[in-house]
Design a protein that fits this description.
The complex is a heterodimer. Chain A is built from no helices and 11 strands. Helices cover about 0% and strands about 50% of the residues of chain A. Chain B is globular, with a radius of gyration of 13 Å. Classes of the chains: A mainly beta, B mainly beta.
Chain lengths: ~110, ~110
C-alpha cells in the first residue's frame, strides 16, 4: 500500500538533546512537508521541500533542521535550540503538478520533552 | 495576508442531527480549498476539496461543502451525524501558484448519543 510512515510514534527527549524524526513516503511525490500541531493552534509549517536536495523554511523553522537527500525521505531534527519542542509532528507529501497537489499526511510523532 | 478562520472551536451535536462547521478565508487571489478530518492521535485525512467547477463539493463519509466566493466561505455540512464523526476538522486554503497550505485552528465535533 502506498502511504507515508513516521517513526517513532512516541518520542521522549531530555532537555538539551537533539532528536530526529523520520518520515518516509512511497507515493512518488516530489514535495514533502513538516508541520507542528499544538492544541488549539491548528497546523504550522516548519519546513518544506519541493525537490531533492532543496528545502525552504516555513513559518516556524527556528530550532529545527531538515535534509532531503532522497525523494522518499525527509527527516526532521529538533535541536536543543527549540525552546518548546513538546508537540505533535506531522509529515505530509504531495505531487507538484498544479492544481491537484493535495497533501497526504502520515500518522504523526508525539514528542515530549522531559 | 492569507488566513483561515474557523470560528467554532467546538461544536456539540446529538446523533442523527445535522451539522455545519464554518470556515472563512481571506485571500486576494484564486484559491483551492480543503477540509481534513483528524481522529485522536492520528494524521489528517482529506474529506473533500474544491479546485474549480461546481461550488457544491461532495466528500467521503456523507460530508459536503459549498464554496461561496462572495462571502469567502467554505462551510462543511452533514445532514445526519454519527457517533463515529466525533473528531477534529480542519479547513485549509492554498493560493494559486503556491505549495503552502494554510490551516485554520480546527473545530472539534462532539457527537452525543
Amino acid at each position: 500500500d502506498g502511504g507515508i510512515t513516521q517513526s517513532p510514534k512516541y518520542l521522549f527527549r531530555k532537555e538539551g538533546q537533539n532528536v530526529t524524526l523520520s518520515c518516509e513516503q512511497n507515493l512518488n511525490h516530489d514535495a514533502m512537508y513538516w508541520y507542528r500541531q499544538d492544541p488549539g493552534q491548528g497546523l504550522r509549517l516548519i519546513y518544506y521541500s519541493q525537490i531533492v536536495n532543496d528545502f525552504q523554511k516555513g513559518d516556524i523553522a527556528e530550532g529545527y533542521s531538515v535534509s532531503r537527500e532522497k525523494k522518499e525521505s525527509f527527516p526532521l531534527t529538533v535541536t536543543s535550540a527549540q525552546k518548546n519542542p513538546t508537540a505533535f509532528y506531522l509529515c505530509a507529501s504531495s505531487a507538484t503538478g498544479f492544481p491537484y497537489n493535495e497533501q497526504f499526511f502520515g500518522p504523526g510523532t508525539r514528542l515530549t520533552v522531559l | 495576508a492569507q488566513s483561515v478562520t474557523q470560528l467554532d472551536s467546538q461544536v456539540p451535536v446529538f446523533e442523527e442531527a445535522p451539522v455545519e462547521l464554518r470556515c472563512n478565508y481571506s485571500s486576494s487571489v484564486s484559491v483551492y480549498l480543503f477540509w481534513y478530518v483528524q481522529y485522536p492521535n492520528q494524521g489528517l485525512q482529506l474529506l473533500l476539496k474544491y479546485l474549480s467547477g461546481s461550488t457544491l463539493v461532495k466528500g467521503i463519509n456523507g460530508f459536503e461543502a459549498e464554496f461561496n466566493k462572495s462571502q469567502t466561505s467554505f462551510h462543511l455540512r452533514k445532514p445526519s451525524v454519527h457517533i463515529s464523526d466525533t473528531a477534529e476538522y480542519f479547513c485549509a486554503v492554498r493560493e494559486d501558484s503556491s505549495y503552502k497550505l494554510i490551516f485554520g485552528s480546527g473545530t472539534r465535533l462532539l457527537v452525543r448519543p
